[in-house]
Amino acid sequence: MLVSAKEMLNKARDGKYAVGQFNINNLEWTKAILQTAQENQSPVILGVSEGAGKYMCGYTTVVGMVEGMLKELKITVPVALHLDHGSYDGAKACIAAGFSSIMFDGSHYPIEENIAKTTELVKICEEKGLSLEAEVGAIGGEEDGVVGGGEVADPNECKAIADLGVTMLAAGIGNIHGKYPANWAGLRFDVLEQIKNTVGDMPLVLHGGTGIPEDMIKKAISLGVAKINVNTECQLAFAAATRKYVEAGKDLEGKGFDPRKLLAPGVEAIKTTVKEKMELFGSINKA
Ligand code: 13P
Question: What average pLDDT does the segment 89-97 reach?
Answer without folding.
Answer: 98
